[in-house]
Amino acid sequence: MGAAFVRLCSRQGHRILVHPATRHEVVKGSNSPRTGQRIAELAKFEMVEASPISDALRASAGDSPVGTNDYIDLLFLASLASNAAHYLVSDDVGLRRRARRAGLHERVLRLADAAEILSDLEPDPPQLPPRVEVVKAYALDTSQQLFASIRADYDEFDDWFGRVQSDSDNRKCFVIKDHTDRYLAIAIVKDVEEGKDAPKSPDPISKISTFKVDPAHAGYRYGELLLKAVMRHQVRIGTGSTFVEVLPSVQHLPGFLKTFGFYEYSEKTKRGESIFLKEYLPSNADLEPLDFHVLYGPPAVSPRADIFVVPIRPQWHSQLFPDIEMSNEPGLFPEAELTRPWGNALRKAYLCNASTNLIEPGAALLFYQSGGRQRIEAVGVVEDMFRTKDAEQIICATAGRTVYSTAAIKELAEHRSGILAILFRHDRTLEPGWSRPELESQRVFSRPPQSISIVKGAGAQWVHSQLQTERR
């Protein structure tokens, strides 16, 4: 994976910078004969100058004694915070945890994620995007290598899985496979959990009994795709809340779950596992619109959210929302033409040259397909937005999210208004979609907009009522 990352950086013209503390980390406490080789390998890359550690970073990430490994992590974060580089690539769980506390977690990538993001920028997709399959519990192949570490953590795994198979009607199993049918990720969901150990939360309660991604694919991409399938299923069956139990040794999972609205429950299991809970039934409409969506969705649009119609060309819509295209006309999209992996994710990016400055986090985006379709099928919720003429800034900020190639982004950046980058989460797919006649009759717009436009008055009221009704 490291060689692929270096090769992609070289081919695409990205600079790989090494922090001077990296050499100290390699040398410290190591008597390996490979130490000299690793130091020689570091010398091949450009060395960045160390940045001072600010008081603000010490306060948010936590201070550490000079000379310790934790102090070195702080030095890395200091350079990232001062923008010495766009991203920090590291598989260190502790460093990533501190980056989250400092608000830098979006710019700290696992090696697997960094390589996949660069692969997305290649002229041709290197592989088909991952897909989630639904498999009956009794049809799961438990001899797969993915189950080995689960067995190591749970001595009673085989007995437990026997009970799962006998309860197949109350279980849903989601699997991501590679082209050889090897399991890359799996989630096992108990649709209704009525046990006495279930946390006190809105009924009906569902339990995510297993959530596992192969270590070689342990970045957010596969986990996000898997969780998306789980949450969509739970909302479809009317789940009130769901929970997952996490062993202390699984250090990366809590941060991932919190990104999508799970919060840590006050109690632990008898085995010392932390319980992370997510509620689907909104109980606090006073939350900020984005917080409302993250906590209760997807799907969940705050009743306080502004509504915008976003015109989008069919070719971009099919790339940004491939699951909609496949469900509409599966025969027209053979596997060889499937979109790249970001199309299947929850977090996406839309780029345009629109002049609006009204969009704020939590706003709802209604993607109106121009051309022959003339309807809205996809709804998003804004995470963030910014405008710039710097193509490199856009490429870095939207890595792994956007449908646009590097060349297309550079062309957009030449517009006098610069690029408006909208980072958003896919809230839901409307089934059926809203047609142009319906949108006009409900005063969402009087005619199809040519640019992003806000929906007001009766039109906005209708949209909010429909989103609330169609949530289930």
From TrEMBL:
Stretches assigned to the N-acetyltransferase domain: 133-282
Signal peptide positions (record): none
Sections of the chain in a coiled coil: none
GO molecular function terms noted in the UniProt entry: acyltransferase activity, transferring groups other than amino-acyl groups
Top-rank lineage group of the source organism: Bacteria
Protein name: N-acetyltransferase domain-containing protein
